[in-house]
Design a protein that fits this description.
Layout lengths: L1 H26 L3 E9 L3 E8 L5 E6 L4 E6 L3 E2 L13 E9 L3 E8 L3 E8 L8 E8 L8 H8 L5 E7 L16 H18 L3 E5 L9 H10 L4 E6 L12 E5 L7 H11 L1 H5 L11 H31 L10 E3 L11 E5 L6 H7 L2 H21 L6 H5 L6 E4 L6 H7 L4 H7 L12 E4 L3
Parallel strand pairs: 1-5, 10-11, 10-12, 12-15, 13-14
Antiparallel strand pairs: 1-2, 2-9, 3-4, 4-7, 6-7, 8-9, 13-15, 16-17
Helix pairs in contact: 3-9, 7-9
Bound molecules: zinc ion.
Length: 447
Amino acid sequence: MRFTRHSWCAVVPWLVGMVLLFLTADSLAKTVHGVRLWRAPDHTRLVFDLTADAEHSLFTLENPDRLVVDISDIKLAAGFDDLDLENTPIIGIRSAPREGKHLRIVLDLKQPVRPRSFPLQANDQYGDRLVVDLYDIEKESEKTVADVVTSQGPHRDIVVAIDAGHGGEDPGAIGPNGLYEKKVVMAISRELKRLADSEPGFQGVLVRTGDYYIPLRKRTDIAREHRADLFVSVHADAFKNPSARGASVFALSPGGATSETARYLAERENSADLVGGVGSVRLSDKDKILAGVLLDLSMTATLSSSLEVGKEVLDEMGGMARLHKRHVEQAGFLVLKSPDIPSILVETGFISNPTEARQLADSSYQRQLADAIFTGIKRYFYSKPPLGTWVAANSVDGAERVYVIARGDTLSGIAARHNVSVETLLRHNSLSSTNIRVGQRLRIPPI
Ligand SMILES: [Zn+2]
């Protein structure tokens, strides 16, 4: 009996093994298990989610225009019906197995495109992916001299480039209740642009205008194309400790991160380039030493401006939000590395903190945040207006005024005399009530 039992013991695993072998042949075949699509201003991005890394190739066909994507040794386990093809060059997507084990996907196109594709390896958010970008073939638009001249004017606006972090296939941090950082920061950024555009002498430019990803270096390039005076990146990140809370303002650190939180966040932000695609490599045609010296000089001046504007923004935010740190932090965020544009990164709060996640999702809180950020920016530029700007022409000696309260003064009287609202005075001085005292110094915002 003992012998029989032992021989069964030997046979059972073998049987199980054989059954598994039959199952795995089919169930472990590689699949395309999801397809996502984003429309950016100059291209359309398709992301195929794969169960494992796979070889692929692309080719285009004309009359009618098509793009063919061949993926080796894979099956399709996803549909294309839910993709929103509106405003994209794609009319429809078809697929068929090829030579039994490969997959062919055909994109029917309205017009020719410049395709580009690359694989992305699995990270902590996604598995292996294949990215196919369809770049629009630009129609050349020629600017007339009149267009260029009228857009300048005698006193130019101060241009604030507003960079809503993440976007597209990079959702950023995800808070409780599935709150996406990319959505929260887009809402705050839009509000910031609205405030800048409605302020005389200022103009807001959104670096990302919709839900699509932009590589980090491209973000600073966009700011430079718009001749931005300031670059503000808006975030609401997560931290491993859910009790971490408060808003922060970062400027670039020459030597890297200055605190554990800063380092963690910096790594997180920089790795976004891996999430979103290729990080471009910069090559310079200048003499290396000269370029290095110039860059260093410019970087030093830019960094000191970044710290000053960061401090104004942090002070304003301290009036309405809890702060994580009371000073401008410095970290090696790639997006802050413009040598010529003062740049700050505003962490509006921790989306990983349940209380802050609730606030960040609230549109009136988003408006208050945008208002505080913009008030800080405005204060900085009125104290140091760039030459040739409307603000330089309209500020009093380039500095804000200070009023010392005398006996008999009322806040409404002071406000009326200086042509500002009581609300502006309160906000500008971080006051919570209209009670004032003799000798108190009030900062009067310009205009
Ligand atoms: Zn972020």
